[in-house]
Amino acid sequence: MAQNCVVIDDLRVESVSLSNITLNDIQLSIKNAIKEAFDNFSKEVVIPLKAELLAIKSQNSALQRQLELLQSDRKQKLTEIKNPISYANAAKASKNVRNKPSATLIDDNAEQSNKTTLNSIPKSQTETINKLIHINSDIQSPNAEKYSTDKTREEKAAEWHVQTNKRNRAKTLTTGTGANDSMLQGVQKRMNFHVSRAHPKTNTADIKEHLIKTGITDPIVEQVLSKHPESYSSFKVSVLPDFKEKILMPANWPSGICVNRFLWSIQKPMVNG
């Protein structure tokens, strides 16, 4: 009987231990399943949401900085509009400074006492300084009558002189109108033009013949040295002033030829040989 009780007790102990082992395994598997589910949720949902939140925060910070810059620029523009830097504002500030009363260097006792030399010296110095301060002032101040100069405003204005222009101007050219004689004769005035970019084989006779065909009489044509003689030739054409408009008319010249006033300083004499 005692042996049977021992066997039953052993069976109970074994069943209890088996039940405990099974319960522990179930709890452990549940914990593992919960942990795995939480990890998957964190990877699939929490981490992407966290990254998106960080991106939104960075964009918000950038937008906030841009807004602050725009606000500062707007304030600066409003300040410039309200307080423009101009000559009028500078003159107004200078006027406010000049309206302030000048410092008095003498006390009442020194002004009343004219007997001693020590009191008269600072008084005369102060008067001189105040005269210099108000020498060009046209604003009425408390000390203006006391330290005013002997000359009035009209007298000061009369002392100004308009500066004359000392630039050397060209003197008027004198042109003779008398009749020519056998000893002294004049020539007609001519205008010189530079004709360039003509064909290299073009000569003075060709240019002269072309000018006569266009109605320009008595032309004088000289060939000058061009920068690229192998590419084009250049000429100096002298005509009467009456033909200025005709010689500068584009329709009177072939395509490619250039005509302008002749500059003596840049031309070189033609070298033969």
What's the quick description here?
The protein is an alpha+beta fold.
Which helices and strands appear, and what pairs or packs with what?
Elements: H1 2-82, H2 87-99, H3 108-112, H4 117-133, H5 153-158, E1 191-198, H6 204-213, E2 220-224, E3 233-239, H7 244-247, E4 258-261
Antiparallel strand pairs: 1-3, 1-4, 2-3
Keywords: Coiled coil
Coiled coil: 53-80
Give a description of the structure.
A 4-stranded antiparallel beta sheet has the order 2-3-1-4, with helices on one face. With 273 residues, the chain is of the alpha+beta class. Among the domains are: 1-98; 191-266, Alpha-Beta Plaits (2-Layer Sandwich), CATH 3.30.70. The chain has helices spanning 2-82, 87-99, 108-112, 117-133, 153-158, 204-213, 244-247; strands spanning 191-198, 220-224, 233-239, 258-261. The protein contains 7 helices and 4 strands; from the N terminus they run αααααβαββαβ. The termini are far apart. Helices cover 50% and strands 9% of the residues. The model is unreliable at 2-7 (pLDDT under 50). The radius of gyration is 54 Å and the shape is flat.
